[in-house]
Write a structure and sequence with these properties.
By secondary structure, the protein is an alpha/beta fold. The protein has 7 helices and 9 strands. The structure holds guanosine-5'-monophosphate (5GP). Guanosine-5'-monophosphate binds next to strand 5, strand 6 and helix 4.
Length: about 190
């Protein structure tokens, strides 16, 4: 958090589905309570245990298109047939008093953020290897076998974009990866103030 007059950082955490973005971000928020999380809109149906307004704001396609039309989204992307987008208003509300806010978005969204908010800190979370990514995703059991195949194909394309990010962090060990991300955030704060 910036205690001076500067607004907070926009921190993008991206990477292929199944790499562990949710777990890394959950841990970051535990370790640094001054960080805020940006809750996205999505047209994908909730998975068991996902709470409205906490995991996502679940909306239908008409509502999502209205948000696009109203200019309410910083970025949005289609992922595996569903729309996902970041609302602008909560970002401004968190950043104005100096809180840093974390976005969990796909690589297409991260590319849009780079263009619309060039000062954003963009971190790519990578798996140790593709076999490990598939294994982690199979463990989740949350998608059909068809979705798994589609997502693995998408993941390969996403991995190719890693060099476009400010930092690449390999999620080989959760605590190690989280500490690396925290160090990157601390350094960015020092440069920002
Ligand atoms: P899942 O359906 O597994 O929760 O998310 C699928 C993908 O959409 C993940 O890569 C996730 O990071 C991404 N995603 C979640 N929210 C957003 C968002 O607001 N914008 C974009 N561009 N991608 C998002």
């Amino acid at each position: 958090m910036n205690k001076g007059t500067k607004h907070g950082l926009l921190i993008v955490i991206s990477g292929p589905s199944g790499v562990g973005k949710d777990t890394v971000i959950k841990r970051l928020l535990e370790l640094d309570p001054t960080l805020r999380y940006s809750v996205s809109y999505t047209t994908r149906p909730p998975r068991p245990g996902e709470v409205e307004g906490v995991a996502y704001r679940f909306v239908d396609r008409d509502e999502f298109e209205r948000l696009i039309h109203d200019g309410a989204l910083l970025e949005y992307a289609t992922y595996d047939g569903h729309l996902y987008g970041t609302p602008i208003a909560p970002l401004d509300e968190a950043r104005a008093p100096g809180y840093d806010i974390v976005l969990k978005i796909d690589v297409q969204g991260a590319e849009q953020v780079r263009k619309r908010a060039p000062d954003a800190l963009r971190i790519f979370l990578a798996p140790p290897n593709m076999d490990e990514l598939l294994r982690r995703r199979t463990e989740r059991h949350s998608e059909s076998p068809l979705d798994q195949t589609a997502r693995q194909r998408i993941a390969k394309d996403e991995m190719a974009l890693a060099p476009h990010f400010d930092h690449v962090v390999v999620n080989d060990d959760l605590e190690r990866a989280v500490q690396e991300v925290l160090a990157i955030i601390r350094l960015a704060r020092e440069r920002h103030t």
